[in-house]
Design brief:
Largest sheet: 9 strands, antiparallel
Number of strands: 28
Shape: globular
Strand content: 25-35%
Radius of gyration: 21 Å
Length: 404
């Protein structure tokens, strides 16, 4: 039973700001990068069969899709009174408060909060995989496209993992038939599909936009990843760092699981092979605003789905920051005040422990302004903010031109 009175009281007492509970996600593949500040003893706290905890999700109403996931796995909770046993689903706040929480535009367009973000933290590069494109999702009906935006914060990359290089799509010279030939033998031998791809070494404090329908094999940096509400994917690389992935990973979510043409149609071929891929999708931070003791940068932009900003407040300074939309946020360095609440970036987190590093800000509080104070003598206070498509993010000219 949803406690509606507690929900309304919590948002009122927080003056439009919610304190969030850490949401941990294990995966049954790869190895943990151990940069998300979880206690070394707790990486398998969700069970050995589930795999290591390698992700932390933010502002999420999306459930994890991996086998064995609990019914609420991936869903964010709100800290209502500093007692972890009294936490309430963020999804219940969205459903109860509606436009009062997320704003009129998002409610009218989507009927809910349409995105989430995460820390992604793997020691090794991930498999070449795809999130089904827009047209495929329309055909199959029960899945959503997962548009993603990567940003590689230096604050969470004390080491770079084993291979900080990401593959995107395929070389423009590659044909569909070449790819199909690799997939034909998915259950027989190592397809080495990334031999047909193109790769870029990842650069800290920059990012990439990756639309649904593009194959990608993410590199081993710890990544801040705003994305659309979905966890659906298909794996096109069958052997990765000695791990073998079965045919079900390739054929998931499509009705005709043995038709390679159907399986390949979840990809947008023009996006995967465009000749100006870096120009379209690479993102350097660009200034949004600055003043005495602070600056704010756009770090995710140039798309129709998700945006993000990086706020840096210098030691001993306070600033009132006004944004155009509701947002979730995570403190990645320093300590201070965020609205009426204490905030701090943790050094070490035990599984199940509350933290003071994650918040959600209502549309009204965001547009009126949130006072942020850095209480450190020496260290900057750094906050990453994730938004839906109503945030007024800058466009990227290359995104609007015809494919070369």
């Amino acid at each position: 039973m949803v406690d509606k009175d507690r929900i309304k009281r919590t948002i009122s007492e927080g003056e439009g700001i919610l304190r969030m509970v850490p949401t941990w996600v294990p995966r049954p593949f790869n190895r943990p990068g151990r940069r998300i500040r979880l206690h070394p003893d707790d990486y398998y706290a969700m069970g050995m069969k589930r795999g290591a905890i390698v992700e932390r999700w933010f502002s999420s109403i999306t459930r994890v899709e991996t086998p064995g996931a609990l019914p609420d796995e991936g869903l964010s909770y709100v800290n209502v009174d500093d007692n972890p046993n009294h936490k309430i689903l963020f999804k219940d706040f969205v459903e109860e408060l509606g436009a009062d929480l997320i704003g009129k535009e998002l409610m009218e367009r989507f009927g809910t909060w349409p995105m989430y973000s995460k820390f992604y933290d793997y020691m090794q590069p991930l498999f070449h995989h795809i999130h089904h494109g827009e047209e495929a999702c329309k055909r199959y009906g029960d899945i959503k496209p997962k548009h993603e935006h990567y940003y590689f914060p230096k604050e969470y990359n004390q080491h770079l993992g084993e291979m900080p290089i990401t593959y995107f799509g395929f070389d423009p010279s590659v044909t569909r038939e070449e790819v199909k030939e690799r997939l034909k033998n998915f259950t027989k031998y190592d397809g080495r599909i990334t031999e047909l791809s193109r790769a870029f070494r990842l650069e800290l404090d920059t990012g990439w936009y990756t639309p649904a329908g593009v194959l990608h094999a993410p590199g081993s940096l710890c990544t801040y990843e705003p994305q659309w509400n979905s966890d659906a994917m298909a794996i096109w690389e069958n052997v990765v760092n000695g791990e073998v992935f079965g045919y079900d990973w390739l054929a998931g979510y499509v009705p005709d699981k043995h038709n390679l043409d159907v399986i390949m149609d979840v990809a947008d071929w023009e996006l995967n092979t465009c000749t100006d891929y870096r120009e379209r999708f690479f993102r350097r931070p660009i200034p949004e605003s600055q003043g005495e003791g602070y600056k704010q940068l756009w770090i995710a932009y140039g798309n129709d789905y998700v945006g993000a900003k990086k706020l840096i407040v210098e030691p001993g300074h306070s600033v009132v920051i006004r944004d155009n939309a509701a947002y979730g946020c995570i403190v990645v360095q320093g300590r201070g005040k965020f609205g009426k609440f204490d905030c701090e970036s943790p050094t070490l987190i035990r599984y199940g422990q509350l933290t003071a590093d994650e918040f959600f800000v209502s549309h009204d509080a965001s547009t009126k302004g949130v006072k942020v104070t850095n209480l450190s003598k020496y260290e900057p206070l750094v906050i990453l903010k994730h938004f839906g498509p109503d945030c007024g993010m800058p466009r990227v000219e290359a995104m609007d031109r015809p494919f070369k």
